[in-house]
């Protein structure tokens, strides 16, 4: 993940100094609890200054997570630029897991907050990024389940895999993590797990979406209409069956 600004801590403005100090303490911590007194001491600020910039400790923690996740997200977007929607989904999974393993304490705070049903803003950012990737997959004719269902399934699988690896050890390339990734993507897209080839339904849907209304070289309008009919039948009869 991209490193924070290399400016010395004591030369940063107060808000950035507090964020950096808190992030440093979380990196050193084996637990999800860092005291505000420790943050104040490392940042060289008083309690009123800290609470001027952050409403409370929860606000500070959420801001630290959001700052780290925003830096990761910028790096992730650069990494997947130019990839196909399907490759973006696969690489995005691996990068997401990598973020969690690089920042295990922040990741647990992000996806397993102490307060039940509380959602950290960074988790919403992650979900919207995932939704954007899945919309691109849908627009390419490769998604065989509703977008909301795909978001929920992929988010649950990716976060579960990451938390499991944080607890038990392993990296994004751990066999069970890769198997889960491929199985979930296969379910969402109808691709085969081993080689990433499209199933009959998604392949037909993709070609159907790419066909112009008229003017396909080598085909008459009547033949184009017939091809369109055949492809429509395949997408209906085999929506997600692998080849």
Automatic annotation (TrEMBL):
Q: Which GO terms describe its molecular function?
A: DNA-binding transcription factor activity; transcription cis-regulatory region binding
What the entry lists under InterPro entries is as follows: Homeodomain-like_sf (IPR009057), HTH-type_TetR-like_transc_reg (IPR050109), HTH_TetR (IPR001647)
Q: Which Pfam families match?
A: TetR_N
Q: Which UniProt keywords apply?
A: DNA-binding, Transcription, Transcription regulation
Q: Which residues bind DNA?
A: 35-54
- Give the Gene3D superfamilies listed for this entry: Homeodomain-like, Tetracycline Repressor, domain 2
**DNA-binding as UniProt keyword:** yes
Domain HTH tetR-type as annotated: residue spans: 12-72
Q: Which domain of life is it from?
A: Bacteria
By what name is this protein known? TetR family transcriptional regulator
Organism the protein comes from? Saccharothrix coeruleofusca
| Highest classification ranks of the organism | Bacteria, Bacillati, Actinomycetota, Actinomycetes, Pseudonocardiales
């Amino acid at each position: 993940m991209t490193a924070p600004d290399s400016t010395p801590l004591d030369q940063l403005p107060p808000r950035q100094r507090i964020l950096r100090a808190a992030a440093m303490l979380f990196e050193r911590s084996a637990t999800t609890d860092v005291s505000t007194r420790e943050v104040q001491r490392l940042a060289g600020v008083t309690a009123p200054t800290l609470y001027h910039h952050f409403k409370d400790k929860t606000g500070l923690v959420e801001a630290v997570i959001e700052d780290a996740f925003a830096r990761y997200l910028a790096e992730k977007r650069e990494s997947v630029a130019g990839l196909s929607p399907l490759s973006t989904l696969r690489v995005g999974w691996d990068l997401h897991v990598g973020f969690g393993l690089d920042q295990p304490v922040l990741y647990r705070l992000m996806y397993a907050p102490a307060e039940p049903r509380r959602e950290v803003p960074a988790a919403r950012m992650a979900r919207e990024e995932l939704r954007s990737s899945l919309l691109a997959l849908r627009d390419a004719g490769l998604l065989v389940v509703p977008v909301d269902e795909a978001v929920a399934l992929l988010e649950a699988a990716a976060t579960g895999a990451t938390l499991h690896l944080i607890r038990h050890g392993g990296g994004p390339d751990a066999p069970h993590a890769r198997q889960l990734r491929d199985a979930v993507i296969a379910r969402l897209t109808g691709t085969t797990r081993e080689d990433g080839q499209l199933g009959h339904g998604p392949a037909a849907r993709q070609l159907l979406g790419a066909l112009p209304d008229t003017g396909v070289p080598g085909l008459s309008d009547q033949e184009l209409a017939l091809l369109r009919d055949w492809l429509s039948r395949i997408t209906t009869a085999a929506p997600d069956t692998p080849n």
